[in-house]
Amino acid sequence: MKNFTLEEIASACGGKYVGDKALSQSTITSVERDSRQIKEGSLFLAIKGERVDGHDFIEKCYDAGAICAICETAPKNPTKPYILVDSTLEAVKLIAKEYRNKFDIPVVGISGSVGKTSTKEMLYAVLSQKYKTHKTQGNLNNELGVPLTLLSMPEDAECAVIEMGISDFGEMSRLSKMVQPTICVLTIIGECHLENLGDRDGVLKAKTEMFEFASENADYILNGDDDKLFAVDNVRGKKPIFFGFATDNEYHAEDIENNGEGGIDCTLCFDNTRLPVTIPAIGSYMVSNALAAVAAGRLLGLSDEQLIAGVQSYKTVGSRANVINTGKIRIIDDCYNANPTSVKASLDTLMNFNGRKVAILGDMKELGANELAFHKETGNYAKQKGVDLVIAIGPLAKELAKGANGIWYDTIGNAEKMIRTLVHNGDTVLVKASHSMNFEEVVKILKEL
After folding, report:
1. Distance of alpha carbon 325 from the chain centroid
2. Pairing of strands 82-84, 16-18
3. 3-state helix vs strand vs coil in the chain, percent to 5
4. Is 216 helix (H, G, I), strand (E, B) or coil?
5. Nearest-angstrom CA–CA distance, 117 and 280
6. CB-hemisphere CA count at 13 Å for 412?
7. How far apart are CA 173 and CA 213, in angstroms?
8. What are phi and psi of 391, to 5 degrees?
9. Residues with Cβ within 8 Å of residue 264, at least 6 apart in sequence
10. 163-200: per-residue pLDDT in tens?
11. What is the pTM of this model?
């Protein structure tokens, strides 16, 4: 970390420093919320959770090397300094903002209803060709994850890519106040979190809160294929840069050929430049993600050679369009999360594979009052695409099965026997549902076939 003293931290969050005054000039080495991750010199965040209260572990953290704790109630027998605050969660946001201000580097803020993480990874792959780049790890994209991501930025970071996920109005404002992006990237305005945001116009409003707190003279990279984003013609006096499949986008692609597991061949086009690349991914939507990353790379001075190398070094992460070849079947493990837009994109990807195509789909959560209609429409889409077999699991997915003329089960346990019976050697099987559906269990069943 850059030098960050306990005195600075207490001042940043408006907390009360309690302890040896001389130690207030001590610098921290890391910020940790998990007592098991404490290192020598760590600052420990004592957070009250649903099942565990971090305040119960303060002494343990002191013993493990922590030099200070941020806490809402004073430790019973403090052996080291602590900073007393009203809310640890609010304090860490203020601390993260102060730490962000120590860096004068490009910071790319990335959001959207679909493709946040894959675009973040593509941005990282491209920008790493020139800069020592820091990125969001895992799913640390919320009001605790984003400050932790900022506070883990190493002293020598030259660039950062920060993913920001939201589910309600106001969240993006709070995130972008911390991140202060110098480049804002938005992927798709889709049908997600509608129980809070209402409709796609609400999603657009919530996502574009990012713009208000972007750095002065920030750049804006938007998906021009999205009707809501394409209508954004001016942001704080600056024209957005548009990317997408349509040739009227400033950054677009030609000669697209999806080779399934062999990747996607295409030519990325901009400013009379044509870059032939092979994207090591299975979903054609990755062409759009690559265009967004190339647009950011161009703003930050990467050469054509660096742009090509970056796109071609992309790696998928976790359960996001990850292909598992068991020797009997191919599994498209895309069970990290789901909404109607992302499921349709995954079905498009499934259709790029040879042989029989099976989709095992589950409930899509947080879709609001029209959730059943969204499920049925998604099932209709699977039928129209020509998916050979749809197995739908979960209470909401019953409507999806109806739309797809598929088979429905209420639970994974009840579906297991038929999955083992109906999936055949040589099949390609898409697995996708909202994260809370625990479809990792479906992937496990398929691996055992």
Report:
1. 25
2. antiparallel
3. 40, 20, 40
4. coil
5. 16
6. 18
7. 7
8. -110, 120
9. 256, 257, 258, 278, 279, 281, 282, 284, 286, 287
10. 999 999 999 999 999 999 999 999 999 888 888 999 99
11. 0.86
Are 385 and 391 contacting, i.e. CB atoms less than 8 angstroms apart?
no
Give me the phi and psi of 186, to 5 degrees please.
-120, 135
Token pair, residue 116, equals: 């946040």
Q: Encoding tokens for residue 367?
A: 């879709």
Q: Which two tokens stand for residue 100?
A: 């962000």
Q: What whole-number distance in Å separates Cα of residue 133 and Cα of residue 128?
A: 5
Tens of pLDDT, residue by residue over 325-341, are 999 999 999 887 899 98
Q: Give DSSP secondary structure letters for 47-81.
A: -B-SS-BGGGGHHHHHHHT--EEEESS--SS-SS-
Whether the predicted pLDDT of 277 surpasses 70: yes
> By CB neighbour count within 10 A (0-12 exposed, 13-18 middle, 19+ buried), where does 276 fall?
exposed
Cα 273 to Cα 247, 292, 303: the distances in Å are 13, 15, 12
Phi, psi at 412, each rounded to 5°: -65, -40
CA atoms within 13 A on the CB side of 26: 21
Which amino acid, one-letter code, is at 377? Answer: E
